[in-house]
Amino acid sequence: MSAPLPTPSPELTQLAQIIQLAVAPVFLLAGLGAFLNVCAGRLARIVDRARTLEPRILGSRGDEHDRLIREVRLLDRRIRIVNLAIFFTVTAALLISAVVILLFSAFLSGLKFGTLIALLFIASMICTGLGFAIFLHETRLGTRSVRVRTSILDHEADPDDD
Question: Do 79 and 47 touch, CB atoms closer than 8 A?
Answer without folding.
Answer: yes
